Amino acid sequence: MAGKRKENEAGSSNDLRADVLRVLGVLKVATADQIQRLSLPHLTYRHTLKPTPAKQKEARTASHRAALNDLRRHGLAIDGGRTRRGEETRLLTKDGLAAAAIELDREMEEIGGMPKSAGRSGASHAMTVNETVITLIRPKPDLNKVMGEPAEAVAAAQAAVDASDGIGTLASYATEVALPVKGTWKNPAIGSVRADMVLTAPEAGVPLLFIEVDNCTEEAALIAAKFDKYLRFFLRKEKDTDGFESPLWRTRWSAPDEEYERVHPPVLLVFHEVGPRSAKHQMTRVADLTRHRWQGRWHPKGGYHSYDRRIPIVATTLEELREHGPAGPAFWRFGRDHRQPLLEAIGNPRRDAYLARRRQAAREEERRRQEQAAAEKEARRPVCKECGQKFTDDRWKAIDSRRRWEERESHPHLCEDCQARAVAAEAQAEADERARQEQERPRQEAEEQAAAHKASGWLSRFRT
User: Fold this and answer.
1) Is the separation of the CB atoms in 237 and 246 below 8 Å?
2) How many of the other CB atoms lie within 10 Å of CB of 364?
3) What is the pLDDT of residues 256-290, one digit of tens each?
4) CATH 1.10.10 holds for 1-118+140-163
5) Quick one: DSSP state of residue 202?
6) Residue 263, C-beta contacts closer than 8 angstroms, at least 6 positions apart
7) CB-count burial class (<10 Å; 0-12, 13-18, 19+) for 66
8) Taking the domains of the chain in order of start, what are their residue ranges?
C-alpha cells in the first residue's frame, strides 16, 4: 500500500472526497460531469425534470463540485482551465496526488504524469482520454437509486444496466504512463514513449493493453513513429527479483508467459474525429506505415497468422466504442478485413482454435496410449493357479521376482486368499504331524524297551 490512510486528512466533511481523489488520481484532469459519471452513475438519471440539460447537469454534479471545492480549499486540487465547451476542469496538486495514491492503493511512481495541456484551456486530448476510459468501463447505475424518477429516466437507466458490460473498473486504468526505453520508470530517458492509458483487467480477459488516443490532429507518421518506441520498450530487458533476465515491462505488469513472450502486448488506438483529419484515413495511413510492426506470417498447416515478435495493433473510434462497447464489433485489427469485439481483435482466435484442436488430439492420443498400455498390462497379469482369480496390483507387485530373497512371497503362484489358505493348511499339517508324533512317542518308547528287555534275556542264557 502507498501509505496508511489518513482519517479526514484535509478536514473535509464531504463524503465524495474519496471518489474525487480516485478519479483524478487516474485521469489527472477531469470535469465534475466526468467524475460523477464514473463514481456515481445513477445520478445521470436523476434531476431529469429540470427545465434544461444545463440545469440537469448542474443538479446532478452539485455534490461532486462541492467536493472539488472542498479539496481546493485544502490545497489538494486546483483549477485546470476550461474545456472548449466551457466546463471547468480540476486537477490535483502534489499533495492531492499523494492522497489519491493512498485511495487507489498505489505507489506514487504508478500514478503517472500529468496529461498533455493539463492546465491549458481546452485540454481536448485529456478530455478524450477521459471519455475513452468512461466508455470502456461503461459504469452501471444502481437501479434502486433511480426508483421514483420519471419512467423515461428509469427506462434509460435500465437500458444502461442491460447493455453489454465494459472492461475493468477505475482501478484497472492508469494514464500518462512512461515507458522507458532507457532510464528508469521514474526518470525515463529522452526518446521514451508515454502511453495515454494502460489497462490491466485479467479478470475480463485483458491482462495488459496499452491505449493511445488521437483527436485526429496528429500526423499519421507521428503516431506510427510511436510504435518504434513501443518496440524498443518491449524489447528492453532487465534482471527481475529472481535474478533472471526478462522484459522490463514484466517487472511492473503480469501477463500470460506463453502469449506475451512470443507476441508483444497489444496496443489500441482510439480516434476521435474532432480534428481536421478523417479517422478512417488516420487508421489506414497508420496501418500502412506500421505494417512491418504488426504484419503476421501465414501458417498454412494451422490455418492462421503467426505474430511472433510483432505488436498487435487495434483501432477504433470513440463514436463506435460508445455505440457498441468493448464487447461489440467496434475494433479493427490491422491486417484483418472485418471488425471484431475487443477480446477477439487483440487475440488470435484461429491460432487458439488450432492449438485447442492440437491439445484435444494430444489428449485423445494419450488416452488411447493409456488404454493400450492398460490392455497390455492386463494381458500380462498373473492368474491364481488354485482359483483362477486375477492378481490385484498389490499382489502382482508383492510377487515381483526382483524383490530381495527374504521379501519374496512363499506361494507366488497363488492369490492372496489362496496363499492364506495354503499357509494355514501347511501350518495345520505341521501341527497335526507334531501331535501324531507326540502320540506315537509312548508306543515307540515301549517297543524300544521291550526290544531291549528281550535282547538282555538272550544274553543271560549264554552266560550260564
Assistant:
1) yes
2) 10
3) 766 665 789 999 999 999 989 999 999 999 999 99
4) yes
5) G
6) 307, 308, 309, 310, 312, 348
7) middle
8) 1-118+140-163, 164-347, 381-456
